[in-house]
């Protein structure tokens, strides 16, 4: 019964992903069909449902499944889950029509409050058998970063009502939120789940190795926030701190993978699971290498000037590293079947769209026009993503 509840909740998360993917397809098709919706409002809807509907719901479900006492799925957890759905539906019904305005802000604020309640609930109901788990240590730290990230939206409201949305502090508060969401909360929580999976198979990471990784990674998470400030042309010290953060994060992740890659065999992965994990790790390496590259002022200016590079990087992180990580654990824990076909369709759509997005930025940097039919090809490649998600929803796990 417990697993059935979690399977149901993860299917809801994937439905949100479908909705976000369809909205993304509409945005890609906007120049082709001249839709009459407000483009900026739809961007807000797309990003909120992808980040909060898909990633947050899937990740919190997996964390609750792995780390909370297993006797039953508590009434409080169900209340938190459905309360959160109310805030998400509210955002879905308000953002497309008003953007950031009274009702969408109310639902966004209520979502933040629900996330605080979840954090408290999780912390109070951790399975006592896992109190010494290194995976749990990562997850608890990830939840702290999630709460810290929410400073961004709270400050954003103050900025909008005082110095205005044209201030650099407006963008910095958004970047603060996004940075500690994907680097601090989401990726660290996924690493915690990976360590938990190894621990469940009897594999213990030596304390010395784990502490070196853990301290380096968290130093990297904090200091790489300064990468988000470099577009303001700050003093040299900000570049130095950004460089320390990028190097620290690269070192932590490569050190961790080098010490655990040979232990992955204990997980007895299927071919599809192994493929998802390898692609996710490779994309993670590309992500941290791009971070290191943008420490160099020349590349900082390029990233700040050509929006497609930023969009490509964010999609690399969310659609690549984080979403593939979620797919891996959903399938590994037996909570949802990620078939080979749906996975290949998803990866094909993701890679093709990434190539096209980064190519557009590259063409703009070189002063070259994109090829004829670029917009149509990008929309078609994007279409593969919602189709792959529909396939996942249609494929039921045996005995589910």
From TrEMBL:
Species of origin: Flagellimonas profundi
Name this polypeptide is given: Uncharacterized protein
Q: Which UniProt keywords apply?
A: Membrane, Transmembrane, Transmembrane helix
Q: Report the transmembrane regions from the record.
A: 12-33, 45-68, 80-97, 103-123, 143-168, 174-198, 210-231, 237-258, 279-299, 311-331, 343-368, 374-394
């Amino acid at each position: 019964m417990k697993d059935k509840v979690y399977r149901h909740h993860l299917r809801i998360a994937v439905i949100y992903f479908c909705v976000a993917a369809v909205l993304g397809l509409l945005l890609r098709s906007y120049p082709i069909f001249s839709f009459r919706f407000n483009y900026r409002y739809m961007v807000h809807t797309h990003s909120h449902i992808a980040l909060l509907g898909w990633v947050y719901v899937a990740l919190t479900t997996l964390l609750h499944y792995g780390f909370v006492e297993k006797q039953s799925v508590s009434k409080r957890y169900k209340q938190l889950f459905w309360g959160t759905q109310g805030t998400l539906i509210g955002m879905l019904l308000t953002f497309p029509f008003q953007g950031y305005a009274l009702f969408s802000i109310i639902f966004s604020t209520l979502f933040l409050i629900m996330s605080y309640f979840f954090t408290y609930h999780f912390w109070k109901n951790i399975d006592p058998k896992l109190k010494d788990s290194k995976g749990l240590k990562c997850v608890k730290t990830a939840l702290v970063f999630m709460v810290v990230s929410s400073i961004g939206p709270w400050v954003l409201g103050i900025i909008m009502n005082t110095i205005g949305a044209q201030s650099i502090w407006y963008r910095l508060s958004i970047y603060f939120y996004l940075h500690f969401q994907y680097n601090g909360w989401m990726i660290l929580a996924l690493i915690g789940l990976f360590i938990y999976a190894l621990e469940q198979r009897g594999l213990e990471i030596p304390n010395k190795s784990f502490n070196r990784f853990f301290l380096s990674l968290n130093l990297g998470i904090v200091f790489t926030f300064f990468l988000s400030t470099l577009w303001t042309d700050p003093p040299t010290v900000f570049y130095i701190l950004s460089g320390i953060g990028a190097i620290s994060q690269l070192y932590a992740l490569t050190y961790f993978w080098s010490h655990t890659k040979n232990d992955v065999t204990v997980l007895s992965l299927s071919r599809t699971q192994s493929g998802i994990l390898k692609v996710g790790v490779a994309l993670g390496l590309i992500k941290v290498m791009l971070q290191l590259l943008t420490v160099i002022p020349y590349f900082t200016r390029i990233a700040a000037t050509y929006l497609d590079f930023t969009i490509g990087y964010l999609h690399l992180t969310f659609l690549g590293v984080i979403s593939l990580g979620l797919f891996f654990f959903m399938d590994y824990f037996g909570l949802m079947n990620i078939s080979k076909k749906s996975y290949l369709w998803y990866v094909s759509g993701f890679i093709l769209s990434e190539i096209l997005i980064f190519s557009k930025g590259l063409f703009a940097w070189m002063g070259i026009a994109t090829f004829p039919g670029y917009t149509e090809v990008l929309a078609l490649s994007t279409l593969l993503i919602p189709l792959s998600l529909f396939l996942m929803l249609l494929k039921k796990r045996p005995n589910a």
